[in-house]
Amino acid sequence: MSMIDLAFIIQRPPYKSETSTLGLTHAISYQVVDMFLDDGQGVIPKVCFIGEGVFNCISEHKSMENYGVTSIESHVKNSLLVDLDMYVCKEDIDRFGIPENRLVDAEDMGADKKLQIVPFSEIQNILNNSKHIFIF
Amino acid sequence: MGTLTIAPFASLVGSKSMDFALKLAKTAADKGHKVNIWLTSNGVMIVKANQKHLKDYSHAEKYVKELLEKGVEVCVCEACALARGIHKNEAIEGIKWDAMHWYLAKIYNSDRVIHMGGE
């Protein structure tokens, strides 16, 4: 065995529960998983925002001001910074009227990765190709 | 025999998910499977020792101790626990304290994973 793909599906809106944050923090922890694994072993998380989960990807959160907690936006940015592949369902952002230029971008932090807006069929492919699926 | 990892996110009281997870873990362990339990989010509430068993509420401490005796690995998310005011010195003995990468590593080596989150 070497690397395995894991799909993290985030389908809950931000701040309504702890769920979205947990999905992101679990995915980000892939960076240090090798502490518990043998050489050459690892996991490749793919984070997919679907349904109301796409609201997590809108930029300019004010959670620190309003709730006193780190924003989900910063978790998304940190995820991009550590090269996580992150996908946003095209049909769902269209359904909720979210313009693509309102989505989080971590370019200011020097991230090479960007949120990838993809049709649901591509997210289905990710699910099909993942060893395990985690729904948050 | 296989390896099963279970991650219940719900607390013990207010949902039957945790109760189900613990009983499923016991059944799998009794059949000889290797079982891991990852406790995060409100699931961390069950690690507190000295739980009083009131008949109107589900009870976890007895089950958790039995699972530990059977060799089930139970690990709690330290940050989630501390955020809820639960400290290691008041927890059931034998439970591991670690972070989310522990769960990902167990997932890597599992044949089946039951992730009971998203509530």
Question: Care to give the gist of this entry?
Answer:
The complex is a heterodimer of chains A (136) and B (119). Chain A has 136 residues and is of the alpha/beta class.
Keywords:
heterodimer, A: 136 residues, alpha/beta, Hypothetical Protein Ychn, Chain: A, B: 119 residues, 5-stranded parallel sheet, 32% helix
Biggest sheet of chain A: strands, sense, closure?
A: 5 strands, parallel
Count the domains of chain A.
1
Low-confidence stretches of chain A: none
Note the run of SSEs of chain B as H and E: EHEHEHEHE
The figure for the number of domains of chain B is 1
Biggest protein-protein interface? A-B, 28 and 19 residues
Which strand order does the major sheet of chain B show?
4-3-2-1-5
Largest sheet geometry of chain B: 5 strands, parallel
Q: Indicate the CATH architecture of chain B.
A: 3-Layer(aba) Sandwich
Structure in words:
The complex is a heterodimer of chains A (136) and B (119). Chain A is an alpha/beta fold and 136 residues long. Chain A has a single domain, classed as DsrEFH-like (Hypothetical Protein Ychn, Chain: A), CATH 3.40.1260. In chain A, 29% of the residues lie in helices and 21% in strands. In chain A, strands 4-3-2-1-5 form a five-stranded parallel sheet. In chain A, α4 links the parallel β3 and β4. Chain A is globular. The two termini of chain A are 27 Å apart. In chain A, 38% of the residues are buried. Chain B starts with a strand and ends with a strand. Chain B is α/β, with parallel strands linked by helices. Chain B has one domain: Hypothetical Protein Ychn, Chain: A, CATH 3.40.1260.10. In chain B, α3 links the parallel β3 and β4. Chain B is globular and about 35 Å long. Chain B has a five-stranded parallel sheet with strand order 4-3-2-1-5, with helices on both faces. Chain B contains four helices and five strands, in the order βαβαβαβαβ. In chain B, 41% of the residues are buried. Helix content of chain B is 32%, strand content 21%. At the A-B interface, α1, β2 and β5 of A face α4 of B.
